[in-house]
UniProtKB/TrEMBL annotation:
Coiled-coil intervals: none
Name of the protein this chain belongs to: Formiminotransferase-cyclodeaminase
Pfam families membership: FTCD_C
Protein source organism: Amycolatopsis regifaucium
UniProt keyword Manganese present: no
Lineage of the organism: Bacteria, Bacillati, Actinomycetota, Actinomycetes, Pseudonocardiales
Keywords of the record: Transferase
Positions of transmembrane segments: none
Domain Cyclodeaminase/cyclohydrolase residue range list: 6-184
Annotated InterPro entries: Cyclodeamin/CycHdrlase (IPR007044), Formintransfe-cycloase-like_sf (IPR036178)
Record GO terms (molecular function): transferase activity
Length: 207
């Protein structure tokens, strides 16, 4: 993912191939958000005017770089997880034993397919909170990019939620579904925090 040209990746996303798809797109949105946080930090660090925020910005930069790398990894993981689901559905089902094995393989693959966007949702929430944490000390010339970072991460979060839900709909383990839904619920409130951050940035710009 890191070495692939953006245009080539978008061509693949637009193609008839089933992967990369929406899950990978969600992770890439999270990566964009993290990259923008890094950019704001880089344009703030070393500026005398913001010297008092040097340490916090440096720490935020390290976190943003880590999040960006993890997001790219999730984009690749999503494609692999989807391919596993497709492979499971293609297993033979001529006999009762084959049907049972196929059903078990499908359910196992769905668990993996739901886990990737669940982790994407968690990461997107981290990006949103990290973006909010740098607003106070950020270079005022690039605070609009903090809003864009939050918006990108919010898009990643909302997209990830849909991708978790589509896999949960086919899962037969009711307890696992409830547990996954509960975990997902821990991250969804970050969307509201993203909206609040965007509103705060816009208010500052209008002053």
């Amino acid at each position: 993912m890191e070495a692939q040209p953006v245009g080539q990746w978008l061509d693949e996303l637009a193609s008839k191939a089933s992967t990369p798809g929406g899950g990978a797109g969600a992770a890439m949105n999270a990566a964009v958000g993290a990259a923008l946080v890094s950019m704001v930090c880089n344009l703030t660090i070393g500026k005398p005017k913001y010297a008092q925020f040097e340490q916090s910005m440096t720490e935020a930069l390290g976190k943003a770089e880590d999040l960006r790398g993890r997001a790219l990894g999730l984009a690749a993981d999503d494609a692999a997880a989807f391919d596993a689901v497709v492979s499971a559905y293609k297993l033979p089902k001529a006999t009762d034993e084959e049907k049972q094995a196929r059903s078990a393989a499908i359910q196992a693959a769905l668990v993996g397919a739901a886990d990737v966007p669940l982790r994407t949702a968690a990461l997107a929430a981290e990006v949103i909170d990290l973006a909010a944490s740098i607003l106070e000390g950020a270079n005022t010339n690039v605070i609009s990019d903090i809003a864009v970072a939050a918006s990108s991460a919010k898009s990643a979060l909302e997209s990830a939620v849909v991708n978790v839900e589509v896999n949960l709909a086919s899962m037969s383990d009711e307890q696992l579904r409830k547990e996954t839904e509960a975990r997902l619920g821990e991250y969804t409130s970050a969307a509201g925090r993203a909206d609040a951050l965007v509103a705060e940035v816009r208010e500052r710009i209008a002053r």
